[in-house]
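Structure first, sequence second, as always.
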């Protein structure tokens, strides 16, 4: 379970560029053993890029909730355990030919990666930090 972030931390992290947010997400997800999505009555919220249908993911509840505004104000932030992500989500997203948007913020899009790429990065980080 993650520790709530201070407003100053949130502001600082929101200012990261897409690559920095990706690295932050990988470290946080491995450290906290959970990744965050937004859900509504239809399931997981999706974004569309020119080329891909994507599932946006965030490293912390606060960032996911900050996206639940406007047309998404009825969405809820939901944590997925890292084990469940590895065992179900990576394969499910690949089977559905969905990509992942890494930690989009209000000012810019996140990086778009494929599920196996994120899975690989998370496992590499877990090895580095000794979390398995």
């Amino acid at each position: 379970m993650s520790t709530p972030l201070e407003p100053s931390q949130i502001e600082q992290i929101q200012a990261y560029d897409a690559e920095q947010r990706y690295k932050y997400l990988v470290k946080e997800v491995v450290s906290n053993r959970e990744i965050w999505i937004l859900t509504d009555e239809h399931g997981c919220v999706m974004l569309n890029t020119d080329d891909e249908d994507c599932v946006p993911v965030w490293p912390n509840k606060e960032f996911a909730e900050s996206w639940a505004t406007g047309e998404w104000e009825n969405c809820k932030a939901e944590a997925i355990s890292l084990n469940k992500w590895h065992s179900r989500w990576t394969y499910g997203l690949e089977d559905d030919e969905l990509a992942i948007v890494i930690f989009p913020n209000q000012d810019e899009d996140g990086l778009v990666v494929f599920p196996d790429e994120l899975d690989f990065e998370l496992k590499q980080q877990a090895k580095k930090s000794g979390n398995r």
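Margin note: The chain has one domain: 7-129.
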